[in-house]
Specification:
heterodimer, A: alpha/beta, eleven-stranded mixed sheet, ten-stranded mixed sheet, 21 strands, B: 251 residues, alpha/beta, Rossmann fold, six-stranded mixed sheet, 12 strands
């Protein structure tokens, strides 16, 4: 354990310096929350492959790197032109930009948002005494059991805060853009996001992680989401980190009565990526759909862990996670569906499909169903396969050369998930990115 | 247009075609009939270049070229079209995109300019009228969730768009209701011209009520057992295929 303790030393030292510099500046409750998380982080170890939940994902490469702490770096923000390519036309005037975890007001534009909606910096909202932040920050994502979440919570400073009050409908999608810019330096950042949709509110949030260059860095992100009674929330998460970066992210969602939450989590970047998506279907008649796509090539590793916790009657959840693997890439899918005793008439469907384009690619898939209620409909399944010869032949027989036939089939496999995204420009961007990635991958081979 | 000589083909170690001879000229419609397992579908797939079948002997000359030396996609661009007995579903790829890509591959091959999506859309809508397909099929994934009849109509639509020189239709009449049969047959009739040829592979005579073949061949145990005019189809309908056993055994 000495080894692990040393891995934590740098973080603990940074946390100590941070506590000193923040002394007296933060509201007392936030200081207490951070301190509690810091204590917990000190007690917890980073997971190893001996932990069941981390069996196929070894985080040692992440911990080996000596990072500079983003919160301690005073770097000039990149120019607007440098980040323009990461914007989406639909959200050009409803985007909040963070560079290495720090809010970049000069790159953000929130002019399309209606009165009464809060989109801004989490720390500023906390300092201003926002009671919603106080009620929810750290209340959902469990920092007591997970070292990464504990670390993120202990660091919590700048972050994205979205509060759509009761009854508000926001048509412009809100884009939370996290840019890694550190150039030659290896930097660790801990982006924190809180999304609260009040009673009957409606909104679309795009959360994206991108990089200006191909540096080695570490993003340790935590997002908490609450969909209030009857609220409807579309949440797209685009992980497009540098191909040499590390990304660990947790999304913790709580759904109130009759709410609707639709998530689409896309994982394209990072040398090693892990995303935990936990949804608590906490009251009656909630609708939840979580879809995902991971595309990994070369030596990439992507791990998607999801958990759906059906707690009350008449809940419906639908999940489609698809993966495309090439080269020596690895992927992990673990999807848990828990149907608690009180969750009668639950309708839960889960499917994980994987396409292996190379004999050296490998996927570990583990769908899990735990049912403690009667009268429920649950279905789950997982497939791992290659392109079918009959499919390739069908396209060839229409005049498409074999490599184009294979690319089109692979694209179609991904499109099943991408097609669910309701923002044209996000869909187009993903179409192009996925095709380009597959194309590169074919060329390298 | 097509000359098949002494064709032998094997799948999984089983010889299915055992010395098949067939000549098809431009402007002709040939029907290939025969009992289940006689090699009808194998012939169709071998002509299209299905990789599961190995040709062990014989030759196929198509428009003066050795067809067997061409890859499946090259055959398609040279004008060979196979309407599949079981069309494949391609989730996530729209009919319009798929057909435009295929169409443009052939255009490129012929040294013609490719059509952009808007130009192609006009062409596609025109061709869809031939098979009486609703335009909502344009943006649906290829064959995904289509009924049996819709899949077969989609095959004929592809044929109409790609405008082949040699069309091979593998049991295109199976699984159709009467309306779909009429529509599919109508589509094939519209596409048969003096400069192209059609091979209809079918188990039943019913499609031939709508399409009048110039020649009917009976395939049995991997060879053409009997050839004749369209009256042969009627004879087969009356007599079935059992008489073949005796005639081949006698020969």
């Amino acid at each position: 354990m000495v080894q692990v303790a040393r891995e934590k030393d740098s973080y603990l030292a940074a946390l100590a310096r941070l506590a000193e510099s923040r002394e007296g500046r933060d509201p007392a409750w936030l200081a207490r929350l951070r301190e509690e998380a810091r204590t917990r982080f000190e007690e917890l170890d980073f997971p190893t492959t001996r932990h069941e939940e981390w069996k196929y994902t070894n985080v040692a490469p992440i911990l080996k790197v000596a990072y500079r702490h983003a919160v301690e770096i005073e770097a000039p923000a990149p120019g607007a032109e440098a980040v323009a390519r990461f914007s989406f036309p639909e959200s050009r005037r409803s985007q909040l930009v963070f560079v290495d975890g720090q809010l970049a007001p000069g790159l953000s534009d929130l002019s399309a948002l209606p009165e009464g909606v809060t989109v801004g910096d989490l720390a500023a909202a906390a300092a201003a005494g926002d009671h919603v932040v106080r009620e929810h920050l750290g209340a959902h994502a469990d920092f007591r059991g997970d070292a990464f979440t504990a670390l993120n919570t202990a660091m919590a400073g700048d972050g994205a805060y979205v509060h759509v009050p009761a009854g508000k409908v926001i048509e412009a999608p809100i884009h939370l853009l996290f840019v890694a810019s550190a150039g030659g330096e290896s930097v660790v950042a801990h982006p924190r996001t809180l999304i609260i949709a009040g009673r009957g509110a409606m909104a679309t949030v795009v959360e994206s992680y991108v990089a200006l260059d191909d540096g080695v860095y570490f993003t340790n992100a935590v997002t908490e989401v609450v969909a209030g009674e009857g609220a409807s929330l579309d949440h797209y998460r685009l992980q497009e980190e540098s191909l040499r970066a590390f990304h660990v992210g947790t999304t913790q969602v709580r759904q109130e009565r009759e709410s609707r939450y639709a998530s689409c989590a896309i994982s394209l970047g990072a040398a090693l990526a892990r995303h935990n998506l936990d949804v608590g279907l906490a009251d009656e008649r909630v609708e939840c759909s979580i879809d995902g796509l991971y595309v990994v090539t070369g030596g990439q590793h992507a791990d998607s862990h999801t958990s759906l916790d059906h707690q009350r009657p008449h809940g419906a959840s639908h999940q489609l996670y698809k993966g495309i693997l090439d080269g020596r890439a690895r992927a992990v899918f673990s999807g848990k569906i828990l149907v608690r005793e009180g969750a009668l008439l639950t309708d839960a469907r889960q499917l994980n499909k994987n396409l292996l384009l190379s004999p050296d690619a490998q996927v570990n898939t583990k769908p899990q169903l735990e049912i403690f209620a009667d009268d429920v409909k649950c279905a789950h399944g997982a497939t791992v396969g290659q392109l079918e010869d009959d499919e390739v032949f069908y396209l060839e027989s229409r005049g498409l050369p074999p490599e184009r036939a294979r690319a089109l089939l692979t694209y179609g496999f991904a499109e099943d998930v991408i097609g669910k995204i309701r923002l044209d420009s996000v869909r187009r961007h993903l179409d192009e990115t996925v095709l380009a990635r597959l194309h590169q991958s074919l060329e390298v081979r | 247009m097509l000359e098949i000589r002494n064709l032998h083909a094997v799948i999984d170690g089983n010889e299915i075609l055992r010395g098949l001879d067939l000549a098809v000229g431009a402007g002709e419609v040939h029907a290939i009939m025969g009992p289940n397992g006689s090699g009808k579908s194998t012939l169709a797939k071998v002509l299209a270049g299905h990789p599961s079948y190995e040709v062990t002997e014989g030759e196929v000359i198509y428009q003066g070229k050795n067809l067997l030396e061409l890859a499946p996609d090259e055959r398609a661009r040279e004008g060979v079209f196979l309407a599949f007995q079981y069309p494949v579903e391609i989730p996530g790829v729209s009919n319009a995109n798929f057909l435009r890509l295929a169409y443009n591959e052939t255009r490129k091959h012929r040294g013609e300019e490719e059509l952009d999506p808007l130009e192609f859309d006009d062409l596609l809508r025109e061709k869809m009228k031939i098979v009486e397909m609703d335009t909502s099929f344009i943006n649906r994934s290829v064959n995904e969730g289509f009924s049996g009849g819709e899949k077969k109509r989609n095959e004929i639509l592809q044929m109409a768009v790609l405008d082949p020189r040699l069309a091979i239709l593998d049991e295109t009449d199976s699984g159709l209701d009467i309306d779909a049969l009429r529509i599919v047959a109508g589509g094939i009739n519209q596409l048969a011209r003096p400069d192209n040829a059609v091979i209809l592979v079918t188990h039943y005579q019913r499609l031939l009520n709508y399409i009048s073949p110039d020649f009917v061949h009976v395939l049995y145990q991997g060879r053409i057992a009997k050839s004749g005019g369209k009256e042969l189809a009627h004879e087969l309908e009356r007599k079935g295929y059992d008489w073949l056993k005796g005639s081949v055994a006698a020969a």
